[in-house]
Write a structure and sequence with these properties.
- This protein is mainly beta.
- The protein has one domain (11-285): monomeric porin ompg (Porin).
- It has one helix at 11-21, and strands at residues 60-70, 76-85, 92-103, 110-113, 116-122, 132-134, 137-142, 157-161, 164-167, 172-187, 193-210, 213-229, 232-247, 249-250, 256-262, 265-266, 275-285.
- The protein has a twelve-stranded antiparallel beta barrel with strand order 1-2-3-5-7-8-10-11-12-13-15-17.
- The chain is globular and about 55 Å long.
- The relative contact order is 0.20.
Length: 292
């Protein structure tokens, strides 16, 4: 969650929904410094629209589901992301993102599978215990969606995102994102093709009310090109403010379940659009780390 560019009228909403799952994904929690007696784990990697700069810990896998529905347009999107650290070096992380999109209201609504994203992220500096962390991501966009119904880009592409996470104090953390998307041969529903570009900026401010309860406010700005004719594109943009909460349930076998809910609100160029965003994460060890 990121997670996360289209080449038709749904380009902004599609990118917005992918930001939920890719990046669009990790978060910071209290209690990260190791005390003399181990404390229950806090929330570490569960952002909504903003990507945090923390890779998965060694031997831990995360399964993330998100659902977003917009009130006015009646559009909704479900995304699923699975994150895996590299076996021998957790600085390398691999993940994939799947999406199902529903566009418009009955009886003129359409639905289908969206494009698949294959993601790689490298932890350049820091981790979940650091004051500053940086972990750029590179994604390959696989054109599995259908341009005829508005759920795909029509061609392969690439996306990069550069998340930076900064711990301000024991109670406050902030995260910053900047990314760009390129679709060399994007296609619209009429079959027209053109080079399409998009970029995004985002920021979040998180209040750690409790190690297992966070209050957050995220802001995301997206500007993308949609194909309107052969070799011709048109810019569109959206700006969202997303207040929400997330909380955690910890189990003795190492499983952590994190639900979350937020209310994305369109402001500026996206004024008037609002929706509901639901988040659910399951994070657990997939092998036992051997002690040296």
């Amino acid at each position: 969650m990121i997670y996360l560019t289209l080449v038709n009228t749904m380009i902004v909403r599609f990118v917005f929904c992918h930001l939920f799952a890719i990046g669009l994904l990790p978060a910071w929690g209290l209690g990260q410094q190791v005390p003399s007696k181990p404390a229950p784990p806090g929330i570490q990697d569960n952002s909504f629209l903003i990507e945090e700069a923390y890779n998965q810990e060694a031997g831990v896998v995360q399964h993330i589901s998100s659902f977003a529905r917009f009130v006015d347009s009646k559009d909704w999107a479900y995304t699923f992301t699975q994150e895996w650290p590299a076996p021998r070096n957790p600085r390398h992380q691999f993940s994939y993102t799947l999406a199902v999109l529903h566009l418009g209201a009955f009886p003129r609504s359409t639905a289908g599978i969206g494009d698949v994203l294959l993601n790689y992220r490298y932890q350049v500096t820091g981790n979940a215990e650091s004051r500053i962390a940086f972990a750029p991501r590179f994604s390959l966009i696989c054109p599995t969606g259908q341009t005829a119904v508005g759920t795909g880009t029509g061609g392969p592409g690439v996306q990069t995102n550069f998340p930076v996470s900064v711990v301000v104090s024991r109670k406050f953390v902030t995260h910053w994102n900047a990314g760009v998307t390129f679709i060399p041969h994007a296609q619209n529903s009429l079959g027209d093709r053109s080079f399409s570009t998009g970029y995004n900026f985002g920021q979040s401010f998180i209040f750690l009310a409790h190690p297992r309860l966070h209050v957050l406010v995220e802001t995301v700005f997206i500007r993308v090109q949609s194909v309107v004719a052969n070799d011709k594109t048109q810019w569109s943009q959206s700006f969202y403010v997303n207040p929400g909460i997330r909380w955690a349930y910890n189990f003795s076998n190492g499983l952590q379940i994190v639900p979350g809910v937020s209310v994305p609100i369109g402001v500026g160029p996206g004024y008037g659009e609002k929706g509901i965003f639901l988040y659910l994460s399951f994070e657990h060890p997939f092998r036992h780390t051997q002690e040296k």
